[in-house]
Write a structure and sequence with these properties.
This protein has about 220 residues and is mainly α. The protein has helices at about 5-10, 15-30, 30-40, 40-70, 80-105, 115-145, 150-180, 190-220.
């Protein structure tokens, strides 16, 4: 490769989107895991855990490939630290989805019927947050291939702003679910309450990291 070619290389932004898609696949598996918990289908739940673990591993492989193929001399259209910050947030999202799957399978936690609807609403909203981030990342890649200004840039900023709103909705649903969990203190096992809260916190972490990733996208866009 020529010196110029070595300096320019291939843009890593497309691979960041590949990683974002794989991370979103991890998050996507959380909803059927909640459905399996509600149905108390422990075999299905363990199968889904294996799928989450495999998908998280595949996301890790993409992450390693991005870092291994990002030479120090590469001319990036964005700040290197912010790009890596975005990647780290995505990595944590996949990790938290896997953590959730471990908590869900480590014991046969029974979800009280009063929590079914709230858990499903919360998981659906967390998935919405992750999906909004993926859409923003895809549009950011398309924008990077042309320029970082104009109506297209404003559209990406709008998606990032919407991401914050979606995370806020998830936060509200999470608080509502947490209150409902502790209202069952005299009705269910204390361990069921503990494990429900642990699952809730991991799901909240996914949404929080998605919002953090959006902040890194915003910073890259504005520079």
């Amino acid at each position: 490769m020529t010196i110029i070619g070595d300096l320019l290389g291939n843009s890593p932004i497309g691979h960041l989107v590949d990683h974002a898609r794989k991370v979103h696949e991890c998050v996507e598996l959380v909803k059927p895991m909640i459905e399996a918990l509600i149905a108390e289908d422990w075999e299905w739940l363990n199968e889904l855990h294996d799928r989450v673990s495999k998908t998280e591993y595949e996301a890790d492989q993409i992450k390693h490939d991005i870092r291994d193929n990002l030479p120090r001399r590469y001319f990036l259209p964005v700040n290197r630290e912010e790009l890596d910050g975005f990647l780290q947030c995505q990595e944590k999202m996949a990790d938290y989805a896997e953590d959730f799957s471990v908590i869900a399978t480590i014991r046969k936690t029974r979800l009280h019927e009063d929590l079914h609807e709230l858990f499903m609403a919360f998981v659906t909203q967390v998935f919405q947050v992750s999906g909004t981030l993926l859409t923003a990342a895809v549009e950011f890649k398309n924008l990077a291939e042309v320029s970082f200004s104009g109506a297209e840039a404003r559209m990406v900023l709008g998606l990032i702003n919407r991401l914050g709103e979606e995370e806020w909705k998830a936060d509200k649903l999470g608080r509502k679910l947490s209150m409902a969990i502790y209202e069952l203190e005299n009705k269910v096992s204390p361990f069921d309450i503990i494990f429900c809260e642990k699952m809730l916190l991991k799901l909240s972490d996914i949404a929080n990291e998605a919002e953090n990733a959006g902040d890194f996208l915003r910073a890259m866009l504005r520079k």
